[in-house]
Amino acid sequence: MSTGDRKEHTSARSQKYRDQYLAMDVEERKAFGMWTQAMRAIGVGLSEEEKKERQAQNEYDKDVKDCTQCEKWRNELLQTSPIVRFMSQHLSKSGAPVSQSSMPCIKCEEMRSGGFAEDGTIQLCYNRLFGKGHLETTMAHEMVHAYDQANFALDWYNLDHHACTEIRAASLSGDCRWSQEVMRGNVGFLKHHQTCVKRRAVLSLLSNPSCKSKKHAEAAVNKVFQSCFTDTRPFDEIY
Question: Which long-range CB contacts under 8 A does 97-100 form with residues at least 24 apart?
């Protein structure tokens, strides 16, 4: 079919649809309009460019929604969560107070729910959260790192130091509660808490530039595990 033939065919088809629309009564046009909107909402009838624009808009809307939810939960947890309030009080006593501004909700490419920067910023990954309880654990985990940095001569590039704070954070924050592990698909009973703490610490060490391999990370964790696991400061015991 030539270009001219295609245009003529399209024009004739459009005229046919217009005639059908004009033949409808008010209720039929209303129903047709609703059906058309529903089809366009799922992408039917959109050009490729329109589909890309729709996808980008949907992603933006989801980002805004998730970030707003993260900020709302964060603000509530700073006021109401026993573990977050406890850690916040001890961080203030240590000269490293935290606030909403030092805990930004950001979008993370990596598969992590949070992070701690050497400048004291606690990053909360709004696109990696399962819920408010998950955010509470994440905040507590990163706050243990903040506490360790404020109270000890912590060198993040020293694998033993990094292993120690990861062991403490995983153990004290609730990160290795049975319910958390079930959500990750890890179920066990015999020394479950210790096993989880070691695994989580090793995973964190793998991102350290000083870590050469998984065996290197495991060796560092095993080396300091006993002393760091039993150090529950500022808690009296494991939360």
Answer: 98/122, 98/143, 98/146, 100/71, 100/74, 100/75
Given a cut of 90, whether residue 183 has pLDDT beyond it is: no
Give residue 51's Cα distance to chain centre. Answer: 27
Contact between 172 and 229 (Cβ < 8 Å): no
**Distance separating alpha carbons of residues 177 and 197, to the nearest angstrom:** 10
Q: Classify 174 in phi/psi space as left (phi over 0), alpha (psi -120 to 50) or beta.
A: left
Q: What is the mean pLDDT of the chain?
A: 86
Sorted by sequence, the CB contacts under 8 Å of residue 57 that are 6+ apart come out as: none
Taking CA atoms, 55 is separated from 44, 61, 198, 226, in Å, by 13, 10, 40, 50
Strand ordering across the sheet containing 114-116: 105-106, 122-125, 114-116
The catalytically annotated residue of 28, 71, 110, 142 is 142
Task: For residues 76 and 80, give the distance between their C-alpha atoms in angstroms, rounded to a whole number.
Answer: 6
Known catalytic membership, residue 142: yes
SS3 state at 191: coil
State both tokens at 152: 């000890």
Tens digits of residue pLDDT in 23-37: 777 777 777 667 566
